[in-house]
Amino acid sequence: MTPDQPTAIAATGLRKSYGEQTVLDGIDITVPEGTVFALLGPNGAGKTTAVQILSTLIEADGGTVRVAGHDLATDADGIRGAIGVTGQFSAVDNLLTGEENLLLMADLNHLPRAEGRRRTAELLERFDLVDAAEKNPMTYSGGMRRKLDLAMTLVGDPKVIFLDEPTTGLDPRTRRIMWDAIRGLVAGGVTIFLTTQYLEEADELADRIALLDHGHIVAEGTSAELKRLIPGGHIRLEFADPDELDQAARTFAGSTRDDAALALQVPSDGDVNSLRAVLDHLDVASIEVTNLTVHTPDLDDVFLALTGRPTEVRSSAGAGHQSAETTDTAADSTTKETVR
Ligand SMILES: Nc1ncnc2c1ncn2[C@@H]1O[C@H](COP(=O)(O)OP(=O)(O)OP(=O)(O)O)[C@@H](O)[C@H]1O
Q: SMART domains, from UniProt (predicted)?
């Protein structure tokens, strides 16, 4: 984020407990205008709770929130007027047709009748729901309902949209349609706050990703920055016989061998230069390889590493949260100090 880029969502020290259970233990979130922010976390991590607080649906126990220039403490109505929320539970009314649902939203947003009709027609078109407009949403597929739900959110032309697990349960094709719709919104200047359990979704859509675990944001950064936070990139070489494997193991210091599979894992960040270096070494030593694969850490690895080893992560998260922003080589990132 550049210093003068306007901020759409700014939360500091957000806290929420249910009885004895601390769900959010002082989290900070900053989302620049016109960007996508993804909040990731295991089941029950507090993602929905965060969305509900930021979208004024429930009250926090502590912390400050500004959304679209409005302060939650003094101007919750201002926030409500500027945002759209699509939750895990659909707002679609099954007693109305798809079109009537949209028209109802237009009424609730106080749009003049003609404007409401124009906007409804445009959204039915945009989400490929024209043929289904007159039908009852009970007859819709899950993907169509989700599209109608998002269309209903867009009737009020919100500047900031909260999408709580927008594609959970959707087939891959419908998921891609939703992703395209989300990208279209962002291209038009809308800010998206997304929660998801699909790491691929965060990878595809988000400018910045935060991992929420045990009430803390344990890591935050771009997808590439988060992937650099953990070790695990390697080139896997397979050989036809043990002698080749032996020779290769001597050639590549720091490699890990798998004798049963006649394979060797050579640490690598997966870029072309390191691949070329490995091939050159093999060539010089005249070692034959039967198979070669490059493995770069994906967000699944990051997720597992950061939420699966809570004690290591907690030690650095204690002073705030870990930012990937300034981390270049971060193989030992779990012990890094917070830089923000
Ligand atoms: N109204 C409530 N009363 C008591 N506990 C609650 C309430 N709402 C949420 N919780 C608890 O707070 C924790 C966080 O819930 P939340 O729904 O925010 O998690 P989540 O990350 O969105 O999970 P999921 O991915 O499963 O939707 C859970 O342990 C949940 O049981």
A: AAA
**82-125: pLDDT as tens digits:** 999 987 667 789 899 999 999 999 999 899 999 999 999 999 99
**Same domain membership, residue 182 and residue 41:** yes
Of ligand 1's listed atoms, the one at least distance from the Cα of 51 is 18
- Is 242 in the same domain as 176? no
Torsions phi, psi of 163, nearest 5? -115, 110
Using DSSP's 3-state secondary structure scheme, residue 154 falls into: helix
Give the range of the structural domain holding residue 265, as residue numbers without chain letter. 234-295
Q: Which of 240, 311, 235, 312 is nearest to 278 (CA)?
A: 235
58 CB under 6 A from ligand 1? Answer: no
- Model-level pTM? 0.76
Same domain, residue pair 187 and 282? no
For 251, other C-beta atoms within 10 Å of its C-beta total 16
Nearest residue (by CA) to ligand 1, atom 31, is 44
Q: How many folded domains does the chain comprise?
A: 2
Please tell me if the CB atom of residue 51 comes closer than 6 angstroms to any atom of ligand 1: no
Q: Is 18 in the pocket of ligand 1 (CB under 6 A)?
A: yes
> For 50-93, what is each residue's pLDDT tens digit?
999 999 999 999 999 999 999 999 999 999 999 999 876 677 89
The rounded Å distance from CA 46 to ligand 1 centre is: 6
CATH of the domain at 77: 3.40.50.300
